[in-house]
Every structure is written in C-alpha cells, then in structure tokens.
Specification:
Strand content: under 5%
Largest sheet: none
Oligomer: single chain
C-alpha cells in the first residue's frame, strides 16, 4: 500500500507484521487480536502517564480527560474478547503448539499498566529480559497513578498519613484509615470538593473496566483451553483468577460501604 495515508500510518509495516506459523485459518485471528490489544495498551500507557504528570502538577482538568479516554479504550479491549471467543478449542489446538513459550503473561505493556496503576509486585520482573526489566523497574521506583492521587489529597490539606505518602514507592500500597477518611470527606461533601470527587469516580471507572477486562480474559481462556496450563508456564486459569482479586484503589471501594 502506498500514498500519504498508508505512509503516515505505516500500514505496510503494520499489515505485514502478521506472520502465522501454520496454514490454519484461525491463527490470523489470534495474532491480530493480540497485536491490536498491544496497540490499544500503548495508547492506555500514553494516557495514564500523561494523567500522572498532570496530577503531579496539580492540573486536574487534563488528567480527568486522559482518564476518561482510558476508560473508553478499555471498553474496546473488553469487546475484543468476544471476537477471540469465536475461536473454538479445536481451532486453537491446531496451532497452539507452535506458540512455544510465548504467552500474554510476558506482555511488557500489560505489566507496565499494572505497575502504573499501583500493583507493586516485583516477582513479575523475572519474566522479562534486561532491557524490559529496567523499564519496569523504573516504573516501580516512582509514584503510581494512585500514589500521585494521594499526594494530591495531601496537597489539598487532607491528613494523609506519612507512612502512605513517604513510603518507598516499590512497597505495595495497602488500605489506610487516613486515606479512607479523606475519601469519606470528599464523597460526603462532593460539591465542596467537586474536582477531587470527579477524580475519584474516574479512577473507579478505570478499575471497574479493568476488572471487567480481566474477567472476560478469564472466561475466554476457560472457554478455549479449560484448565490447561498457560503456554508461558503459568497455571493458566489459576493465575487469571488470582489477578481478579487484586484492587488498585482499595479505599475507593471501601468508602461506598460507609456512606
């Protein structure tokens, strides 16, 4: 393909990047879905990183816009599982053995999104090569999106405990009463704290969609391979089910019970 449109979008490179390892009809579907997912995740990382910078600068307007875009993008990612679910177990078995040890578990971008949102689990670093490991370690060494949010709450005068906002950023944030108290104040007086209230709801939207995406991933894998081990050596469904239980922004879910 030639011309300005194709050149601008690098379509010759993109459309030649699908390299099936078999003659099976359904392998192209599998490749395209995962490549498209990686492209959308690139946009998610771009927007989340921008939101982090804007929160750090105490500029909520652009941050809220970026988070809204991420939530919309997540719905596209969620819907992609319904397309992949048209791949039957028999279809997949025709080429699964050709994947070798390749697995979505090895996606650097997925892990980056988790680290940016606030999951601090260094065990996953060993999955990646030195270059990617260095990129992921850099994410662990700076505040997550939620950390930037809590620093912003402190800057607005909320009494966030020092153990929360002065901890080493590699240490996983755990629910803390001082944070819960701050969100309670914001939700109970939303008109007075409208921008922070809106930020809270944008974060809930984001995590809600992320949980939905993980659930659809879990159900699609269950539908296609059952309880087989994952190609990357994970426990397959067991690993995916465990991921469903993790919460990035714990106090934002706890506050609902107390209102």
């Amino acid at each position: 393909m030639s011309g300005e449109y194709g050149d601008y979008l690098a379509l010759p490179e993109i459309l030649s990047a699908q390299r099936p390892r078999s003659e099976e009809h359904d392998e192209l579907l599998f490749i395209v879905i995962h490549q498209a997912t990686e492209l959308w995740m690139k946009l998610v990382i771009h927007e989340l990183s921008f939101a982090q910078r804007e929160l750090h600068a105490h500029d909520l307007g652009p941050a809220l816009k970026a988070l809204a875009r991420v939530a919309r993008t997540q719905h596209v990612l969620i819907e992609s599982w319904s397309v992949l679910s048209t791949l039957t177990p028999s279809d997949y078995l025709e080429f699964r053995h050709l994947l070798g040890t390749a697995s979505g578990f090895q996606s650097v971008q997925y892990r980056s999104i988790e680290f940016i949102l606030g999951r601090r689990d260094e065990r996953y670093l060993k999955t990646h090569n030195d270059t990617h490991r260095a990129e992921l370690e850099a994410l662990l060494d700076r505040p997550s999106l939620y950390d930037e949010t809590l620093l912003l709450l402190a800057a607005h005068g909320f009494a966030i405990d020092s153990s929360v906002i002065e901890r080493p950023w590699r240490r996983q944030h755990e629910s803390h009463q001082s944070v819960l108290d701050a969100w309670l104040e914001i939700y109970r007086n939303s008109q007075q704290h409208w921008a922070l209230y809106e930020l809270a709801e944008k974060l809930v939207d984001l995590e809600h969609a992320f949980s939905h995406w993980r659930f659809e991933h879990y159900k699609t894998v269950h539908r296609i391979i059952g309880n087989k081990r994952g190609t990357g050596g994970t426990s397959g469904l067991g690993y995916l089910k465990q991921a469903l239980d993790f919460t990035f922004f714990p106090e934002l879910w706890e506050v609902r019970t107390l209102l």
